[in-house]
Amino acid sequence: MRKINRAIISVTDKTGVAEFARELSGMGVEIISTGGTAELIKSAGVTVILISSFTGFPEMLDGRLKTLHPKIHGGILGIRDDAGHAADMKKHEILPIDMVVVNLYAFEDTIAKGCTLSHAIENIDIGGPTMIRAAAKNYTDVAAVTDPADYMKIIDEMKAKKGMLSKQTRFSLAKKVFELTASYDAAISNYLGTVAEIPEIEPSKTFPDTLSFQLRKLQDLRYGENPHQSAAFYGYKTGTSATMDNPRQLQGKELSYNNILDLSAACELLAEFHESAAVIVKHNNPCGVAVSKDGLLDAYKNAYACDKTSAFGGIVALNRRVTGELADLMTKIFLEAVIAPGYDEEALGIFAAKKNLRLMQAGAAAPAVNNHPLEIKRVAFGALVQRLDLESARDLHTVTKRAPNEKELADLLFAWRVCKHVKSNAIIFAADGRTVGIGAGQMSRIDSTRIAVIKSKEAGLSIEGAALASDAFFPFRDNIDLAASHGVTAVIQPGGSIKDDEVIRAADEHGIAMVVTGIRHFRH
Fold this sequence. Notes:
By secondary structure, this protein is an alpha/beta fold.
């Protein structure tokens, strides 16, 4: 280990940098800096050497050229124990730089706000990535500091080790550099891959020719879908921090791979509703969903009533604070996890008695999706990429002689929101803001309808007067005939079948009101 004698500091995110520089200076470290960073450090009473004074070369080209100079990069890259390097540095009067404190132009923040191509280009950092990559490459001699969260840990170690940092610390910092630059370059590549320099000649693209993204590991998992599969949970990463609004676990066993899948499915569906809502998910499919003007307790009771058998061992997602009364009711059955924006003290005490129950808190509302706009699925030959399905019913068209009444329309829209989150082929029966029968994941649509009928009967519920939602068009009239035989009075579906006329005619024969959405919600 060597004492750190000289540091260059040039940051976009200036959080804590003045205090960090003051601590370094107090340990005898010479500070070199640029532009606004130098001004901030000087205002904190710290002596600063301007980069132009250090190199003997002025900053120029509107700030594009500041640090790209042999006295900077030679001082960073020179291997201290290499006699040839030492001779070159002495010959050219290059002083060693022992620490590089740099974070990068906020490229992603710039493009997220909407900007011109030329403005985006000006926010591509050149000197910053070059310096930190050089420092990380020479980590045996140089500390590369890119994250303000590391400042105080570094100061504490330097104070404990007489101004030095361990090789292990420098290697850890170096790894963070290459994680950062990989993410930074990926953001630039993805952006440039979708925009056109001359839109009139070359149209913009939804998907770049090369798609790059970075994930940060959030935790190792005990195993994957099955015990013989190893697994880990990663979050999408932007810049230096994960963007996903990850729920906080308050108690219970460690989350499993399947728990996370089900929590994700439950939260995505829950986000469809603004009123008090309860969603129960089992094996990535909802088995009960309800909303209620009378509050969360009523919503949970109705969701649970839809399929009490499947709810055993399920995941419950709620969008309001959980009371003790509701907690007491939920603990009557075995649940894998509960996720909600908050819990009162009585509820926390009741849940505490179920030590293995995974209790999750998800902020003001359970997040529907992380901030990454793409859905990526591995397949045998590569990966499939698509935009997230954030569409809903926009322009409903009544295609039958009878239009739905006000109650039927409300039931149809509720069923449609649920249907979007059920594995195809999906059939939903709903009435009064609750599901009363769900048929999921069958190879034929008629089988999904039959299963939804069976589930309703087994739950002791009635579909008399209920609404039906189908995630895709009906290939034949048999689904309508079956639903009508059990009292369904309204149907919502995408339309688009070559048998549409036959299906609509069946609905008219049964006095059913049917609306089409023109949009499909397959979920594979």
